[in-house]
Write a structure and sequence with these properties.
By secondary structure, the chain is mainly alpha-helical. 41% of the residues lie in helices and 8% in strands. The chain contains 9 helices and 3 strands. It has a 3-stranded parallel beta sheet, with helices on one face. Helix 7 links the parallel strand 2 and strand 3. Helix 3 crosses helix 5. The radius of gyration is 18 Å and the shape is globular. The two termini are 29 Å apart.
Length: 200
């Protein structure tokens, strides 16, 4: 299959800083516990939390010890996704099925698939440099730090990008939604999400 174009936002780089956000190691970027005052209490994350023990997200059964850990993490992450408090949005993360699926997926990646070296994705950007692409990122994204977009745009000079000054991580935030919808309309009308190609 051939990729013709790309449009997206809030990129996860899979490096050490983001694994630290998951509580696995020290250093890197700040954890969201220092972020929005609306955030739910941070669960006691660490190796045991993400592990396969009966109380960890990586093991146990849905609705059991693992389910309780998954729900704690999901509620916490959901409350950190938006810059402004959004109780309705955050409440969706308390749903048992949502919490279990989200936490188990992230537990797998945090524990098993961290990219080595941390720059692996950026190192491979030249392979897709010719693909028309647009990226949007919230300035106050705590889930995927805006630094990821800065690193990406330097590795991918052809990338069209936009930082939304009053948004966090969620595509439900007005500024990010507006940019994604605009990019989709450009694709429909011009066959590309890239603004520079249209303007030129």
């Amino acid at each position: 299959a051939r990729i013709l174009l790309v449009s997206g936002g809030g990129g996860f780089g899979g490096g050490g800083g983001e694994c630290f956000w998951g509580g696995l190691e020290e250093g890197g970027c700040p954890r969201p516990v220092f972020g929005p005052p609306s955030a739910a209490p941070a669960p006691p994350v660490g190796g045991e939390f993400w592990g396969e023990g009966c109380g960890g997200v990586g093991g146990g059964e849905e609705g059991g010890g693992g389910g309780a850990a998954a729900r704690a993490w999901s509620i916490y992450e959901g409350s950190c996704c938006t810059m402004q408090p959004n109780k309705e949005f955050a409440a969706t993360f308390a749903d048992d099925a949502m919490a279990w699926n989200l936490a188990r997926l992230e537990a797998h990646f945090f524990r098993n698939t961290r990219f080595q070296p941390d720059t692996l994705l950026l190192d491979r950007v030249p392979k897709m440099a010719a693909i028309p692409a647009f990226a949007v990122h919230g300035r106050y994204d705590l889930v995927c730090p805006v630094r990821n977009l800065h690193d990406l745009r330097h590795a991918w000079p052809q990338l069209d990008w936009k930082i939304v000054p009053d948004a966090g991580h969620s595509s439900y935030e007005t500024g990010i939604t507006r940019q994604l919808v605009a990019a989709t309309k450009r694709i429909a009308k011009y066959g590309t999400p890239v603004r520079q190609k249209i303007e030129s």
